[in-house]
UniProtKB/TrEMBL annotation:
One MF term in the entry's GO annotations: metal ion binding
Protein's organism: Saccharicrinis fermentans DSM 9555 = JCM 21142
InterPro entries: Coproporphyrinogen-III_oxidase (IPR034505), Elp3/MiaA/NifB-like_rSAM (IPR006638), HemN_C (IPR010723), HemW-like (IPR004559), rSAM (IPR007197), rSAM_horseshoe (IPR023404), rSAM_sf (IPR058240)
Superkingdom of source: Bacteria
Protein name listed in UniProt: Heme chaperone HemW
SMART domains named among the record's database cross-references: Elp3 (SM00729)
């Protein structure tokens, strides 16, 4: 079954670390919703009748859309796609956008999962990252979500932040665990080109944390979450049993998915496409029925590298049988690198899968790169 991702490109302010496409302007919301609905309708035959299992509203800040905006989009989805087997319907929300009335509206639309961008429960750190909520608002948002009937709530946290102490990181983890959420996505801060943080890094205003600090913070995260029964099912994602993100898992297991809105990606083996990252151009081209996306057919090398990247990030690992059906040169290369990494104790083989060793998970990106074919 397939997934649907919808990108909402609006923000009130831009976080210092964020490189996802968004604009600090809300005046185009109505026109955007109309164009988005047109794209959804225009592509209604893309899945060839395949049922949709998950829907995910991301951004940007989807919680800036009103109930009326969301209803228009949801109605179009139900009218043109097979949602009879829909299991998970997620929307990303900012803590200071939601209240009991809005949460009730979301539930009435069939949304059954919230992904809340909290990042930290420390006001100093929230200010540093240019988040527009404070710790008290984050706590209240989670409590309101539970009271409104949401029993599948995910929160985002960030570690590896300059000048954040281990004690401050531990406090955020403890606060998150004390709220009874079902899912936690924890990401190491990265300095992405084009972001404020990246520019400040190049100006020596900011400095990346030492590797030893990252390792210590990651180890603390793993220890505390495992202690509370969380499963580390993907390098940055942890959940209580049965609460894996079904939508994100579809990316990692190679399922088909459609992406609507500016910058949204779609995948249908062996092809991938992505919409232009420019709201004005996106709306103009959708309205005038001009091409608003780029497209590629995955090469055999692309398929190999993607299998490595997606597999090693998960606790399931890379299926050896998948690799063994590829070109001989890829199989030989993979086996050589696998033997080396097993000897280094960075990976291990189990039940037909190659996995990253537990104590090496913070180095997953480096390990993946080692397996890549340039």
């Amino acid at each position: 079954m397939a997934g649907i991702y919808i990108h909402i490109p609006f923000c009130i302010q831009k976080c210092g670390y964020c490189d996802f496409y968004s604009i600090i302007r809300l005046t185009d919301k109505s026109d955007f919703v109309a164009c988005l609905c047109k794209e959804i309708i225009d592509r209604k035959d893309t899945l060839n009748g395949e049922a949709v299992k998950t829907i995910y509203f991301g951004g940007g800040t989807p919680s800036l859309l009103s109930k009326q905006d969301l209803t228009k989009i949801v109605d179009v989805l139900f009218a043109h796609y097979d949602l009879s087997k829909l299991e998970e319907f997620t929307i990303e929300v900012n803590p200071d956008d939601i209240n009991m009335s809005y949460l009730t509206d979301l539930r009435e639309l069939g949304i059954n999962r919230l992904s809340m961008g909290i990042q930290s429960f420390n006001n100093k750190i929230l200010t540093f990252m240019n988040r527009r909520h404070n710790a008290a608002e984050a706590l209240q948002a989670v409590e309101l979500s539970k009271r409104s009937g949401f029993d599948n709530v995910s929160i985002d946290l960030i570690y590896g932040i300059p000048n954040m102490s281990l004690q401050e990181w531990e406090s955020s983890i403890d606060t998150a665990l004390g709220m009874g959420v079902q899912h936690i996505s924890a990401y190491h801060l990265t300095f992405e080109p084009g972001t404020v943080f990246y520019k400040n890094l190049k100006k020596n205003i900011l400095k990346e944390v030492d590797d030893s600090v990252s390792v210590e913070q990651h180890a603390l995260l793993i220890h505390k979450l495992k202690e509370k029964g969380f499963i580390d099912y993907e390098i940055s994602n942890f959940c209580q049993p049965g609460f894996e993100s079904k939508h994100n898992s579809s990316y990692w297991n190679g399922s088909n998915y459609l992406g609507f809105g500016p910058s949204a990606h779609s995948y249908s083996a062996p092809s991938r496409r992505w919409n232009i990252s420019d709201l004005k151009e996106y709306m103009k081209k959708v309205q005038e029925e001009e091409c608003y996306f780029e497209f590629e057919i995955l090469s055999e090398k692309d398929k190999y590298n993607e299998a490595i990247m997606l597999g090693l990030r998960t606790n399931k690992g890379v299926e050896l049988n998948v690799i063994n059906q590829m070109k001989d040169e890829f199989i030989l290369f993979f086996n050589e690198i696998m033997k080396k990494n097993i000897k280094l104790k960075t990976t291990f083989e189990q039940d037909g899968y190659l996995k990253v060793c537990f104590d090496q998970k913070i180095l997953t990106d480096q390990i993946i790169t080692d397996f890549f074919i340039a």
